[in-house]
Each structure stands twice: as C-alpha cells, then as structure tokens.
Design goal:
This protein is α/β, with parallel strands linked by helices. About 40% of the residues lie in helices and about 25% in strands. The protein has a single domain, classed as Alpha-D-Glucose-1,6-Bisphosphate, subunit A, domain 3 (Alpha-D-Glucose-1,6-Bisphosphate, Chain A, domain 3, 3-Layer(aba) Sandwich). The protein contains 4 helices and 6 strands; from the N terminus they run E-H-E-H-E-H-E-E-E-H. Strand 5 (about 105-115) and strand 6 form a beta hairpin. Helix 1 packs across helix 2 (about 55-65) and helix 1 packs across helix 4 (about 120-130).
C-alpha cells in the first residue's frame, strides 16, 4: 500500500492502481484495528455513485468485519447523509467512500471517529497499522 494515499484529511488514490479490492481489504483491517483500539464496535458505512465505489465497499466492509466491526450499510448516499447517520443511528463512527471533487479515476475514504472526521496524525496512525 502506497504511503501517499494517506492524505491530511482523507485516504485517496487512483482505482485500481492504488486502491483495489485487495488493498482496500487491507485498509479495512487497518481501520477496524484503529477503531478497536478506540473502543468502537459499530459504524455507518456509505458510498457515493462512482462506478468503483461498490467494489471498494465490498473490500472495505470485508476487512472491517474481519476485525469484528459491526457495519450499518447506509447505501449509496452523499457524504452529508453519512454524517447525519452518525448523529442519528446507534454508531460510534463512520466511513464514506467518495471521490469527492476529484477526477473519476480517483476514489477514497473519509473516516469519522464519533461525530468528528479524523485527520492528520490519526490518518497516519491508520497508515502505520496498515504497514505493520
């Protein structure tokens, strides 16, 4: 997994060169481990309408569930609806699979712990877990 996909505010790369089912499953294992260390047991998981988002969802969900994470699949939703789900469902965090404003070959992940998006050192902590 390439270190440069771990950005300041999200995890983002080119599909399938940098993000594919295998690397995303590893990423799911790393994020699930991160969540476990923070006491998180249940999260919301959403995805945008990019063609690659469904494939990435399957890999990410598989990795997360392998760490014991319980997932509430909120479906194909815009990012604000994922944030809404974190506030209104019985979850302790969430992940949105989204390419945001980037060109179509990109996709990525916005990760929330509790009601806050993680960034900077927390994303680098996930990178270190993924590399170990």
């Amino acid at each position: 997994m390439k270190a440069h996909i771990f950005r300041e505010y999200d995890i983002r790369g080119i599909v399938p060169e940098e993000l594919n089912e295998e690397t995303v499953k590893q990423l799911g294992l790393a994020i699930g481990t991160y969540y476990n260390r923070k006491g998180v047991k249940k999260i919301s998981l959403g995805r945008d309408c990019r063609l690659s988002s469904t494939l990435l969802f399957e890999g990410l969900a598989g990795g997360l569930m392998n760490t014991g994470m319980h997932i509430v699949d909120v479906g194909m939703v815009p990012t604000p609806l994922l944030y809404f789900s974190i506030h209104h469902l019985d979850v302790q965090g969430g992940i949105q699979i989204t390419g945001s404003h980037n060109p179509p070959e990109f996709n990525g992940f916005k990760v929330c712990l509790g009601e806050a998006s993680i960034y900077g050192p927390e994303i680098q902590e996930i990178r270190k877990i993924a590399e170990s």
